[in-house]
Specification:
The structure holds two protein chains of two kinds. Chain A is built from 13 helices and 19 strands. Chain A has helices spanning 5-14, 28-38, 77-87, 143-149, 167-177, 184-200, 237-240, 250-257, 277-289, 306-317, 336-350, 365-373, 385-399; strands at residues 22-25, 44-48, 59-60, 71-74, 91-93, 102-103, 107-111, 117-126, 131-137, 154-159, 203-213, 219-221, 225-228, 261-264, 270-274, 294-299, 324-331, 356-362, 379-381. In chain A, strands 8, 9, 10, 11, 12 and 13 form a six-stranded antiparallel sheet that branches. A six-stranded mixed sheet of chain A has the order 14-16-15-17-18-19, sandwiched between helices. A four-stranded antiparallel sheet of chain A has the order 1-7-2-4, with helices on one face. In chain A, a hairpin with a 4-residue loop joins strand 8 (117-126) and strand 9. In chain A, helix 10 (306-317) crosses helix 11 and helix 11 runs parallel beside helix 12 (365-373). The two termini of chain A are 40 Å apart. Chain B is of the alpha/beta class. Helix content of chain B is 33%, strand content 21%. In chain B, helix 3 runs parallel beside helix 4. Chain B is globular. The two termini of chain B are 26 Å apart. The mean pLDDT of chain B is 91. The chains are: A alpha+beta, B alpha/beta. At the A-B interface, strand 8, strand 9, helix 4, strand 11 and helix 9 of A face helix 4, helix 5 and helix 8 of B.
Amino acid sequence: MNIHEYQAKKIISRYGINIPKGGIAYTPGEAKRVAQRVSPRGPWVLKAQIQSGARAEGHFVEKRAGKEGGIRFLTGRKDIFEEAQKMLGATLVTKQTGIKGKLVSKIYIEEFIRAERIFYASLVIDRMVPCVTLLITAETTNIIDLAVNEQDKILRINLGLNDKINTMQLTQIMTFLKLEERSRKNLKAFINGMHQAFMDLDAIMMEINPVGVDERGDLIALDAKIAFDNNALFRHPDIVQMHDDYEDAARVLKAAKYGFHYQEFDTGSIGCIVNGDGIALTIADMLHNRTEQMACFLNVKGGVDKDKIAAGIKIIMTNPRVEGILINILGGFLRCNLVADGIIAAASEVGLNVPLVVRFEGTNKDEAQEILATSGLPVIMAHTMEEGVEKLLKAMEESD
Amino acid sequence: MSILADKTTKVLVQGITGLQASFHVKRSLAAGTKIVAGVSPQRGGTVHVGVPVYDTVREAVAATGASASVMFVPARFVKDAVREAVEAELDVVVTIAYGVPIRDMLEIKAMLKGSKTLLIGPNTPGIITPGEACLGIFPENIHHHGDVGVVSRSSTLTYEAVLETDRAGCGQSTVVGLGDDIIIGTDFVEMLKRFHQDEKTKAIVLLGKLGGMFEEAAADFYQKLPNKKPVVSYVAGTAVPFDYKMGYAGDIITRGKITAEDKKQAMRRAGIIVADSINEIHKCLQELGYGKESL
């Protein structure tokens, strides 16, 4: 689960990390008042609150929002209302949002901090070690290029689960960034604060880009992103409350309600229901080999509740972009007959207006096939995944 | 022989009294698995689906000599259950649950270090040695005793790989699902090592997918092996666009974005046969001289 910058900043400030004074605004009038409160004379920074990186380099879909990106620097008090009005309700597209972009429904207004220099710091899970790894680099843009081509420009330090950073590691970072000695104490508190928050809150990614160093040598978080482990949210009801439903498409939310994973892609017309992401990936590969694309897939995982499965299937059946459905279930924990019952329940409620191909294998497969065969639904059965893909494409062609 | 579990392996089941556990334990027993004990706190002294139940793993091991465990406990209790298994010095522990928190997995990996316990999973169908032992939730009737080892990083694709070996006319020596999660107990390298030591296994099917660098590690290890058994592989995820994500950190860790194509190339360079479609694995096996053409 991701949260917004303003929420992330609030969290890290509780762990002793300096953040600029700021406030959130949903309307231009509010923006003006918040600006006055955080910095009476300015300058200010207006930051679109969408959950994406590279907001400054992004662009708005609507002309009225102007040519600038999602982060705007303002010196005049009178411009705040106007700029907030331009951004609010407009759609911001960045390298990380996909072509549809994201609706800006709130902006964060901050005092502008004059940083003498900036750098990049993040904590992330390195699944191969595995451990929590601290990443530091003096660059703050094009970091992926560095990761590929100039690896020595990124410092990596593997951290223990509960240890604070030691003197040697601290010196290593100081030297790497060529920080002045007066920043040492602040740097130590900054990294330890990040690490403590990361562990306490079951984060899986925490990125502060950039970290600013002010004229006194103090460190300040000029941006912040945190992603949390969905599987650990049961330990953090306060974080669950920070979830912004507007960030997720309606179908994703609905699927999550039933404990399923739903994902939609920008193009394609085929909807899939599977019980494992690996199957979805494999079907996507097979479609790709035939120059077709998957529109969306629903992973019902190891679902054992017939009604939930039916509700999940409806999410795919009612997607207007879906012109054909492939259901591929390899039952182990999940029993095929439950899915067959779910298909019938969903179809009887919302109707089945597109070709549906079903491939069952594994636990209670025969029973499941029998259920569908006697249901009267025009379901096409397949024996293998490849056959399922071929039969669906053929049926879609014929129904055109 | 086979790897990890055979008909002589004494197995205990942690969380045996749950509804799902009961269903799968009955099936495992029917498949010949030597399940000697169940563990369920405060249910010690009872008998469940014909299996004696103990309060703790330690008691179960003392009474029965069990050396392996299959765990049906919910995700949030997995950490404590693994600790019990490690302290009782079990050889193999299979964790079925999905949704184990990553922080718990980091702690579990720390526990496993230096212990004699091998953890398979979490989020795995488990281990099956057809006709001998089933430690997990595998479907019925698709496994056949044979000489192809199967190891997969995608739970449900494990079944697909097994079906491909069936289509080729081969059976399986042992099938292992490594688990779908971000952090897993055991990786391809350990399984390649064991399959190469196992006399029964003549060839190996390895299923990889997007995410992490497990396939690259497998390729590195395989390249250096002096006496290689043939490995046929498939990597899922060629066509899927990357998830839209926040920030850069994930891609920095892997030193740039890694595609399924990168993984395939790494494996081909190491001498692994890579199928472009999962449903071509049976042909690759047949071309190597395994199984029957007619099937």
